[in-house]
Structures are given as structure tokens and as C-alpha cells.
Design goal:
heterodimer; A: mainly beta; 11 strands; globular; B: Immunoglobulin-like; 4-stranded antiparallel sheet; 0% helix
Chain lengths: 115, 115
């Protein structure tokens, strides 16, 4: 099965701890994205990567970090500097080959709760 | 106090009726639009897309209409079923040249289908 996997589905952490969320895709997509979703709100872009070893800040990057060492993987670290880390985190990927749509394929999400 | 954004716009319809979900987008230079469906606790799923050089596109039971004059997008669902109950997001693509494109998401509309 091709797709995007995120793990774990639920994650609990104590305030002050860093936590890393996993995102893996086997769609051979070049671009990958991390979004944050709060209750009753749309998706806000945290970071995105168009190619391996390169990534850019999105609209709400403060308190987060990413890496893109492999095409298939784009882990997100929520650091202790993120003031309101409790949220639903979504990873997505997209093919950037010519002629494709701009559709992003989403993973199932990770719900992070920090207390 | 109550946080802004906790209450999504809600459309309540009877099973078998047609549903129309509306979306206003922000950027007149947006060249591509997508509708996503998100069920509770899951990642968004692609429904249908439309390019800015089109006014209408039809899929299975769904139709998207684009009015560039007033920057308005709508999703029509025919013969709405209980399985259509979800939050629906529109997204506009803003291109920055080359492979760099970003989707900007609306806040979503909750579709509640009454049996």
C-alpha cells in the first residue's frame, strides 16, 4: 500500500520536554509538509521541504524544528520553546513533477497532548 | 472567555438532499483550488480540484464551481448521505515559481447529515 504514515497516533508529554513526530511516505514525492490543526480551525503550515536536505519555515515555525535527510522521511520536533504545543499534527506530501496537480496527500495525524 | 474559531460554520441537511458548501478565497493570483473532506480524528482526504482557467468541474456526486470575479468557490454534493458528514475545507494554491507552492486552507465547514 502506498501512502503516508504518521506515528504514534496519540502522544503525551510533560511540559518542558522535546518530542519528535514521525512522518514517512512511500509515494516517491519530493515535497513534504507539516501542519498544525487546533479545534475548530483550519490547517496552519509549520515547515515544508521541496527536496532532500532543504526545508523552509511556514507560517508558524517558532518552537518547531525539522530535518529532511531522506526523501521518504520528514520528522518534526516540537521543542520546549513552543508555548502551546497541544494540537493535532498533520503531515502531507506532494509530487512536484511537471504536469501534476498541487494536491497534497495527508497522513492520519498525530494528536499531541502536553501537560 | 470563549476562543474564536472553536465553532465551525455548520450546514445541516437531510439525507438525500443536495448540499452546497461555500468558500471565499483571498488571493486573486491563486491558480488552483482543492476541496478536502476531514472526518473526526483523521487526515484530510482529497475530493475534487479545479484550475483557475475553469468555472466548473464535476466528479462523482460532487461539483465544484469557481467564480473568480468575486473570489468564491463552492462544493455541491448531490443526494447527501450520512457518510458525507465531515468537515470540508477549501484550499487555494499560491505559487512562488518553480516547485515552490503552498496551499492556504480555509477554516472549514461542518456538514451534518440528518437521517
Amino acid at each position: 500500500d502506498g501512502g503516508i504514515t504518521q506515528s504514534p497516533k496519540y502522544l503525551f508529554r510533560k511540559e518542558g520536554q522535546n518530542v519528535t513526530l514521525s512522518c514517512e511516505q512511500n509515494l516517491n514525492h519530493d515535497a513534504m509538509y507539516w501542519y498544525r490543526q487546533d479545534p475548530g480551525q483550519g490547517l496552519r503550515l509549520i515547515y515544508y521541504s521541496q527536496i532532500v536536505n532543504d526545508f523552509q519555515k511556514g507560517d508558524i515555525a517558532e518552537g518547531y524544528s525539522v530535518s529532511r535527510e531522506k526523501k521518504e522521511s520528514f520528522p518534526l520536533t516540537v521543542t520546549s520553546a513552543q508555548k502551546n504545543p497541544t494540537a493535532f499534527y498533520l503531515c502531507a506530501s506532494r509530487s512536484v513533477a511537471g504536469g501534476h496537480s498541487y494536491e497534497q496527500y495527508f497522513g492520519p495525524g498525530t494528536r499531541l497532548t502536553v501537560t | 472567555g470563549e476562543s474564536v474559531g472553536l465553532h465551525l460554520p455548520t450546514l445541516s441537511v437531510q439525507e438525500g438532499d443536495n448540499s452546497i458548501i461555500n468558500c471565499a478565497y483571498s488571493n486573486s493570483a491563486s491558480d488552483y483550488f482543492i476541496w478536502y473532506k476531514q472526518e473526526s480524528g483523521k487526515g484530510p482526504q482529497f475530493i475534487i480540484d479545479i484550475r483557475s482557467n475553469m468555472d466548473k468541474r464535476q466528479g462523482q456526486r460532487v461539483t465544484v464551481l469557481l467564480n473568480k470575479t468575486v473570489k468564491h468557490l463552492s462544493l455541491q454534493i448531490a443526494a447527501t448521505q450520512p457518510g458525507d458528514s465531515a468537515v470540508y475545507f477549501c484550499a487555494e494554491n499560491i505559487g512562488y515559481g518553480g516547485a515552490t507552492n503552498k496551499l492556504i486552507f480555509g477554516t472549514g465547514t461542518l456538514l451534518a447529515v440528518q437521517p
